[in-house]
Amino acid sequence: MFKFKEKSASMLFLALVATGFFFLMLVGVLGLGLTQYKYNLIKVAKNQALHVAEAGVNYYRWVLYHDNEEYCNDQECIAGPEYGPYGPYVYTDSSGENIQGYYELYITPPPLDGSTLVTIRSVGWVEKYPNIKRTIEVQCGIPSWSTYSVLANANMRFGEGTEVWGPLHSNSGIRFDGLAHNVITSSVLDYDDPDHEGGNEFGVHTHIVPVDPLPDGNNPPENVPEREDVFEAGRSFPVSTISFDLLDNYINEMEEEADENGLSIRKSNQEGYHIIFNPDNTLDIYEVEEVSSPCSICLEWGCTRWWHGWLCTRWGCTDYQHTETEGIIDESEYMADVDIPDNGIVFVKDKVWVEGNIDGSRVTILAFEDPIAGNSTDIIVNNDLIYTNYDGTDGIGLIAQRNITVGLYSEDNLQIDAALIAKGGRIGRNYFDASCGSEYIRDTIEINGSLATKERYGFAYTDGTGYQIRNLNYDGNLTFIPPPHFPSTGEYTFISWEEK
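The chain above was modelled as a monomer; its predicted structure follows.
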């Protein structure tokens, strides 16, 4: 009897130990499950906080779409360096049930130099976990006219050997026989290319073998071939027109900007003004008193198409083309060591010659006489106009009422670092023949920037006159960091997205 009780006690002890181990394991499993459950809740909250922060970014992009200059969300503006916070603002998902949270916004406006870059920082969290926050920072910008390597209002032709890195657009047709690394667009469905005979061709077409077929009559045409050997990023037509006439209001705004915060230069009593940039953020201004005489080119004996290279002898000639040579003979100092204004706007109501070197400066020169909607004033670049820094730090914009011209007496090797707009005329060099002097043939012109020209541009002619080598290099910094207050097109676009 005693042995039986001893055995029962041992079994009871073992049962108690086993039960204890079971409960310990159960508590451990339950604790692990609860920890995993809490971890999953936190993980979900972190993901939801990121969605809330992203919603804040998207909301403010919507604000900028409706008002490009609203940087304070209709509240009293908060100064830097944080430029915020604005909020917090309540966020609820579309169902109104799953995610409820808040976000704060920090909006850094563009610098005063006219850039369109806006920085948006959004901090988001969900209601149940206010200490779990996620931050997204984005940069937005409005593409400017300098987004385009070439923007034109006329039929354009780019020959074999041309290599273009930036986008091209014309409101008319484009024949492109080079290599385009970016998209090429035209506002026309098809057009009669004036450079050769035949039927209408695609708004953007090539004659690189195999030559594009003629349009099939559909809108859009269905027989446009894939030509990655020519159009690496593709071609698109028809697309919306970019009207040069829309610049009228912009020019009026820039005149006011120059009067209030920039530099405004009155109409000259002489030939115009000569502006020289200095690397110390200053400029020297001279009043041009005398310019070189026009060059006379004979137009007789069937030679009226001199731009095709049919040159005339001047002996006995009575019909001449008088072409301005745009050279400065005499000038006097008007203003010296003038600081480039903080807003970067220099508005001149006369013809302007421009040259020089900038270092850490950003400036836009506009040359417009009254009436602003007229078409009479030019900008001339005969000598180097160059940057020191090619990382977006330096920026020059030249906007002419009519032409941006390279004159007869230009440098043999000329470099122009700038974004150029010829509102009513063309960017280029006039035709000069041997009768104009030895300068009628030049060596190399290099433009680092962008070109917007209402009429067809050109620096050389088919008879071998003009610049023998033409290098047009697109400056990618100009897309969202254009020269000060450069005209823009489109809406705010995300440039960068980063979680902080």
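The chain has two helices and 33 strands.
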